[in-house]
Specification:
Chain B: Belongs to the ABC transporter superfamily. Chain B: Keywords: ATP-binding, Nucleotide-binding, Transport. Chain B: This is ATP-binding cassette domain-containing protein. Chain B: Pfam families: ABC_tran. The structure holds two protein chains of two kinds. By secondary structure, chain A is mainly α. Chain A has eleven helices and no strands. Chain A has a single domain, classed as MetI-like (MetI-like fold), CATH 1.10.3720. In chain B, α4 crosses α5 and α6 runs parallel beside α7. Chain B has a single domain, classed as Rossmann fold (3-Layer(aba) Sandwich). Chain B is an alpha/beta fold. The chains are: A mainly alpha, B alpha/beta. At the A-B interface, α8 and α9 of A face α2 and α4 of B.
Chain lengths: 297, 259
C-alpha cells in the first residue's frame, strides 16, 4: 500500500480505446465495420470511382449484361439499364444518396430528440410533460405513413422525404432520452453530484450522459437501418428522389419494369441495400456489446 | 469554547402530495437542537421513519428546512446555497453501489467536486485525487478504475474519499456500514475513526448497529416519530437510559451482546 506503484507497467486505455479493444474481440462486428467503412468511402469518393456519370445515356448498349456474363463487357462492369446508363455508376451514386442522407437524417433526429428529451427529462411540471406527451401521438402512426402525409403536403422530392423521415424519428429519440434522464435523476449519484454544487447542465453532460451512450448508440444504429429502408421505400413508391437522380429505391422501381429480361437491374441495387443494412446492424450490435462490456466486466 | 456545528430549532415538514380524494400522511420533523464539537462523533439512532435521514438531508442541503438555522463556525448556512456548504459539510451515502456513477472512472468522479468548487489546475487536482485515494487505503492507480471493478468495501472507501476530498469540517454519513459484511464493516469503521483522529473533522452518522455506535460515538441522539427523545453522552445513554424507548433499545442490544 502507500505510495508504491504496483501497476506501473499497466497502461489505462481511454474510454474510446477501451471500447475499441472490446469491439475488436468480436470478429463478425469487425467484418461489419469493414463493410460500413467501404460504404463511407463510396459516399466520399463517389464521383472519383464511378466510371461514368450516373445520368449519361449510352444508346448503343441498352440492357447490356454484367461483365461476368458471356455477352458482357468489362467497360460496364454491372451492365447497363433500359436507358443505356451504367449500373455500377448508378449504384455507387445511389448508395451515396441513400446512405449519406440516412446518416444525416439520423444525426439531425438524434440531436434534436436528445435536446428536447433532456429538457423534458430535467424539467418539471406542465412544460416538460406537454412536450413529451404531445409528441406521443405521433409515435402511434407508422413512420412511413407520416412520411407519405408530409410528402403529400409538400410535394414529392428528396428534400421533403428527408424532412418527413427526420420528423417522424424525433419523437422516438425524445422519449428515449427523457426516460433515461428521468430514471437517472432518481439515482443517488445524481444527488451526490447535485450536492457537489453541479448545475443541471453539468449533471446532464457529466453524470448522466456517460451512462446513456449505450442506449443512444443502439437506438442510433437501429434508426439508421430504418432510415435507409424508408428512404428507399419512398423512392420505390416514386415519392422520393425523382427520375434522373440515382437513388437505390428509385432504381429498384425502374428495374422492376424490365425485371424478367434484365434481373441485374434490381438485384444489384437490392444487394447494395442489403449490404448496408447488414453492416449497420453488425456494427450496432458490436458497439452495444463493447460498450456494455466496458462498464460491466 | 464555541462549537463547530450548531443546529438551532431545525424543523421540516414533508410536502404532502395528496390527491383530490386521498390525503397522504405527511411527515413532520419537530424542531431539533444540537451542537457538535470539532473532532467529535455524534450518532443518530432510532427506528425507520423516525426522521434520521431527514436530519442528514437537511444538514447537507438535499432538503430545505422549514425553519431554524445551521451555524457552522459562527457562519449561518443559507438554505438552498449548496456552493456555500458543500465545501464544509459532506455526505457519505448508504449505498455506495448507486452513489458512485457507473459510467465514470473514479478519477473523473473525484475530479467533479474539485472542478466545481476549487481553483486548482488539472495537474494539482490529479495530485489531490491520488493523495485522497491513498488516504482512504486505496492506491493512486484506482483513479483509472470504474466502480464496478471494485469490491463493496473499496466502493465505500471511494465514497469516503469523495466526502474527504474537499477537506470538509463535518461529514454526515447515512448508514454507511449497513450494506457491508462484518469484516469489511469493521475495516471501514476503523478507517473512519483513524481519519477522524488525523483530520479532526466532526462526524455525524446514522446507524442501526448499537455496537458500532457504542464503539465510535461520543454522543448519541435518539429519535422517534420526528422528535429527539433523548440526547447525551454515549456512556450515560448506554448505562442510564431515561426514556422508555431508549431503555428498550439498550436492553435489546445488551441481551444480544451478552448471549
Amino acid at each position: 500500500m502507500g505510495q508504491s506503484k504496483l501497476y506501473l507497467e499497466d497502461h489505462f486505455p481511454s474510454p474510446v480505446k477501451h471500447t475499441w479493444i472490446e469491439f475488436r474481440r468480436n470478429h463478425v462486428s469487425i467484418i461489419g465495420l469493414w463493410i460500413f467503412l467501404f460504404f463511407v468511402a463510396v459516399i466520399v469518393f463517389a464521383p472519383g470511382i464511378a466510371p461514368f456519370s450516373p445520368t449519361e445515356q449510352n444508346t448503343d448498349v441498352i440492357l447490356l449484361q454484367p461483365a461476368w456474363d458471356n455477352s458482357g463487357t468489362i467497360v460496364h462492369l454491372f451492365g447497363t439499364d433500359s436507358l443505356g446508363r451504367d449500373v455500377l455508376s448508378r449504384v455507387i451514386h445511389g448508395s451515396r444518396v441513400t446512405f449519406g442522407i440516412s446518416i444525416l437524417i439520423v444525426l439531425i433526429a438524434m440531436l434534436v430528440g436528445f435536446s428536447l428529451g433532456a429538457f423534458a427529462g430535467m424539467g418539471h411540471g406542465l412544460r416538460a410533460s406537454v412536450l413529451n406527451h404531445l409528441l406521443d401521438a405521433i409515435m402511434v402512426i407508422p413512420t412511413l405513413i407520416i412520411a407519405i402525409i408530409i410528402v403529400a403536403i409538400f410535394g414529392t422530392g428528396l428534400t421533403s422525404c428527408m424532412w418527413a423521415i427526420t420528423l417522424s424519428m424525433i419523437p422516438k429519440f425524445i422519449h428515449l432520452t427523457r426516460d433515461l434522464v428521468r430514471n437517472a435523476c432518481h439515482m443517488e449519484y445524481v444527488t451526490a453530484a447535485r450536492l457537489d454544487g453541479a448545475s443541471n447542465t453539468r449533471i446532464l453532460f457529466d453524470s448522466i450522459l456517460p451512462n446513456m451512450i449505450e442506449p443512444l448508440v443502439v437506438n442510433g444504429t437501429f434508426a439508421l437501418s430504418v432510415a435507409i429502408l424508408e428512404l428507399s421505400a419512398l423512392g420505390f413508391l416514386n415519392l422520393g428522389a425523382q427520375a434522373p437522380t440515382a437513388e437505390l429505391g428509385a432504381m429498384l422501381s425502374d428495374g422492376l419494369e424490365v425485371a424478367y429480361i434484365a434481373p441485374w437491374n434490381i438485384a444489384l441495387p437490392g444487394a447494395a441495400i442489403l449490404l448496408m443494412l447488414i453492416a449497420v446492424n453488425l456494427v450496432g450490435d458490436g458497439l452495444r456489446t463493447a460498450l456494455r462490456n466496458r462498464l460491466q466486466q | 469554547m464555541s462549537s463547530l456545528l450548531e443546529v438551532k430549532d431545525l424543523s421540516y415538514c414533508a410536502k404532502s402530495r395528496g390527491t383530490l380524494f386521498k390525503r397522504e400522511q405527511s411527515f413532520k420533523l419537530e424542531p431539533i437542537n444540537f451542537e457538535l464539537q470539532s473532532g467529535e462523533t455524534m450518532a443518530i439512532i432510532g427506528d425507520n421513519g423516525s426522521g434520521k435521514s431527514t436530519v442528514a438531508k437537511l444538514l447537507v442541503g438535499a432538503a430545505m428546512p422549514d425553519s431554524g438555522s445551521i451555524i457552522l463556525n459562527g457562519e449561518t448556512m443559507q438554505p438552498g446555497n449548496i456552493k456555500q456548504r458543500c465545501l464544509k459539510i459532506r455526505m457519505v451515502f448508504q449505498h455506495s453501489q448507486s452513489s458512485l456513477n457507473p459510467g465514470l472512472t473514479l478519477g473523473a468522479l473525484l475530479d467533479e467536486p474539485l472542478k466545481l468548487n476549487t481553483e486548482y489546475d488539472g495537474y494539482e487536482r490529479r495530485r489531490i485525487i491520488e493523495e485522497t485515494l491513498v488516504k482512504v487505503g486505496l492506491m493512486a492507480e484506482h483513479a483509472h478504475f470504474y466502480a464496478h471493478m471494485l469490491s463493496e468495501g473499496q466502493k465505500q472507501r471511494v465514497a469516503v474519499a469523495r466526502a474527504l476530498i474537499l477537506n470538509p469540517e463535518v461529514i454526515v454519513a447515512d448508514e454507511p456500514f449497513a450494506a457491508l459484511d462484518p469484516s469489511v464493516r469493521s475495516q471501514t469503521v476503523n478507517l473512519l475513526v483513524k481519519l477522524q483522529q488525523d483530520l479532526g473533522v466532526g462526524f455525524i452518522f446514522i446507524s442501526h448497529n448499537l455496537g458500532i455506535v457504542r464503539h465510535i460515538s461520543d454522543r448519541i441522539l435518539v429519535m422517534r416519530h420526528g422528535k429527539v427523545i433523548e440526547a447525551g453522552k454515549t456512556d450515560v445513554i448506554f448505562n442510564w437510559p431515561k426514556h422508555d424507548y431508549t431503555k428498550k433499545l439498550i436492553y435489546a442490544y445488551q441481551s444480544l451482546s451478552k448471549r
